[in-house]
Asp/Glu/Hydantoin racemase (Caballeronia cordobensis), 219 residues
Amino acid sequence: MTKIVVVHTGPVTVEPLKAQFAQQLPDARVVNIVDDSLLADVRTAGYLTPEVTERLYTYMSNAQSMGADIILNACSSVGEATDLLRGMIRTPIVKVDEAMAEEASALGARIGVVATVSTTLEPTVRLIGKKAAEQGRTIDVTECIAQGAFEALLAGDSAKHDDILRRAIIELADHVDVIVLAQVSMARLVPALGSLPVPVLSSPQSGVGAVRHALSRAA
C-alpha cells in the first residue's frame, strides 16, 4: 500500500487534505504529523527560522524512516525549507502550493494573492514569481492580507473568518486576472464565493494532485 506522510504546522490543514486524498488517492495510507508550534514560531519571529527548519528535517527524516513513498509539506509558511530539505531527504517531497503557483503564473499577468498571515503571503509571492520566471512570463502581484481572519479561525469563529476573507477576495477580483489563496485553510471558502470575474485557486486539490502525479511518475 502506498504510504504518504503529510507534515502539518497546525490542525486546520488536516481535514481539507484528508478530503482530497479520499477523492484522489483513496487506496493510499495517509499519515499526518502535526506540530502547531512550527507556524506559531514562524509567526512570532516573522520569518522561517533555522530552528523550525531543523524540526521539519526531523519530521521528514522520521517520515523517511517510516517507509513513506512521498512526503507532502502542507504549509506555505515553511515551504521554502522544503527546497533545502529536498537535498537532504531521499524520499520525494511535494510542496502543497507548488502546482497552484505554476497554474497561477500561467493564467494571467495580474495575480492577486490573499493570505490571513504575512508569513504565508511572502513565500507564496516569491514562489509564484519563481514559477513565472521559469515560464518566461512577466507578472504583477497584488498582495492582500485579510486582517483578523486567521485569529478568528484559531478562536473557533469560522463564520467571522469566512466573512473577512470573502470580502477581501471579492474586492480583489476586480483588479486581477487570477486569485491565489495562499493557505490550505482558506480553500473551504471557494464553493461559497459564487460567480466571480476571475478564477480563484486553492492548494488542497492541486497539491494532492501533484502527489498523485509524482507517485505515478515513480511507479
Remarks:
- The mean pLDDT is 94.
